[in-house]
Amino acid sequence: MSDGVLHAFGLIFSADPELYRVVARSLMVTLCAVVIAGALALPFGYLLVHGRFAGRGALVIIIHTLTAVPTVVVGLVLFTLLSRGGPLGGLDWLYTPAALVLGQGLLAFPIIATLVRSALASMDVRVLETARALGAGRLRAGLTQLSEGRLAITAALVTGFGRVVGEVGCAMMVGGNIEGYTRTMSTAIALESGRGEFSFGLGLGLVLLLLALLVNLALQAMQGRAGIQGATVG
What we know:
Elements: H1 2-13, H2 17-50, H3 56-66, H4 71-82, H5 97-121, H6 125-133, H7 138-148, H8 150-165, H9 169-175, H10 185-195, H11 198-233
């Protein structure tokens, strides 16, 4: 175990090209998925709080339920849809980075939407009322409330990022773990560990932990800066 850890650190600091290609591809796929999921989840979460339509309560329950869907189930559904005999087979996305982005986006969407909804629902209603009293339209008032809840929304995006960056079930099913094309950190860890290359797998695992640490440190720094600004204004 100790030899594996030492070898893993050696891979990281020796700038192993394969290691960093896998890391770069994983980050690209995950960031694209979170950006797309976030762009859809923000208005959706806002709609769940302020929308008035039949079935809203049921929709909230469904979104909450989807946060617990196993990744392999999402992968199986996508595989069925994207396979040549499926309704989306014409896109020819199966075993491509686009399929990885789609899969991770579907996994991140309900989590981000649920957290955005919770953040907006817990905010002081006077923020929205004040914006409307000052003449803001619905869109402008909504953007004002989203701006006020930016830290909670950022936390939701970070949580979505953490949910999908280490995901393996869906990625294996729709990405195929193709070297140099769709291989990500999580699928590479599974593959290399199965081959007995534990040091490479440990190296990728350490990179995943380091990324999670850096993202959380950045979030903490943002929250601390906002707290200092709020105290100054007060």
